[in-house]
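Example for tutorial group B:
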C-alpha cells in the first residue's frame, strides 16, 4: 500500500509582540524609524566588521535594509516587504536561530511595525511584531523565548530613547540616516 504524504510544514510559532508610545505623530514616528535608523539601532547589533557609519531602510517594497562600515563594506539585515507610510512597515530579518547572519531571505523571520495614533492625538503607539519564527525550525522555541524576554527589548527601548532625546528637532526635515 502506497501513501502519499505532503511534506509537513513547520508548526506555527506565535509572534513576539512589543509596543511603546512615543511623543510623535504616526508620520513623524514612521519617518524617524525608517529614515534615521543609525540614531537608534543598537551598536552591538552589527553585521559589518568595522565601525558602522550608515544604516539604510530603502523606502519601497523590495528595498534593502542594510548597514555600511567606514571601509564601505555592506551587510544586509533584510528586505522591505511592506512600505505603507505612516502606518505600517514589514521587513525580513536575516538572523538565524543561532544569532548568525543569513545570506538571503529564505530562512529569515519577519518584523512588522505598526504606527497607530494614540488617543491624545499627539503621540503614537509603535508596535513591533516578530513573526515567522517557525522558520528557525528546532531553534524556534529558544529564539522566541529570547525575543520575548521581559521589557521592551533592547531595540525598541533604543528607538524610544532616541525619539525622546531628539524630540525638539524631530518635526523638522530629517535627512536619511542622520
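The residue assignment follows.
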Amino acid at each position: 500500500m502506497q501513501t502519499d504524504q505532503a511534506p509537513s510544514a513547520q508548526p506555527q510559532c506565535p509572534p513576539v509582540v512589543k509596543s511603546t508610545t512615543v511623543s510623535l505623530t504616526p508620520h513623524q514616528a514612521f519617518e524617524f524609524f525608517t529614515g534615521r535608523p543609525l540614531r537608534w539601532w543598537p551598536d552591538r547589533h552589527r553585521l559589518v566588521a568595522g565601525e558602522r557609519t550608515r544604516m539604510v531602510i530603502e523606502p519601497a517594497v523590495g528595498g534593502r535594509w542594510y548597514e555600511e562600515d567606514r571601509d564601505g563594506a555592506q551587510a544586509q539585515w533584510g528586505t522591505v516587504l511592506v512600505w505603507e507610510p505612516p502606518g505600517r512597515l514589514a521587513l525580513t530579518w536575516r538572523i538565524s536561530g543561532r544569532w548568525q547572519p543569513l545570506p538571503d531571505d529564505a530562512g529569515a523571520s519577519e518584523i512588522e511595525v505598526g504606527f497607530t495614533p494614540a488617543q491624545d492625538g499627539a503621540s503614537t503607539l509603535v508596535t513591533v511584531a516578530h513573526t515567522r519564527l517557525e522558520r528557525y525550525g528546532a531553534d524556534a522555541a529558544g529564539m522566541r523565548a529570547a525575543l520575548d524576554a521581559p521589557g521592551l527589548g533592547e531595540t525598541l527601548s533604543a528607538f524610544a530613547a532616541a525619539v525622546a532625546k531628539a524630540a525638539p528637532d524631530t518635526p523638522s526635515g530629517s535627512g536619511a540616516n542622520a
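Confidence is low (pLDDT under 50) at residues 1-8, 171-178. Compare this with the pattern of hydrophobic and polar residues in the output above.
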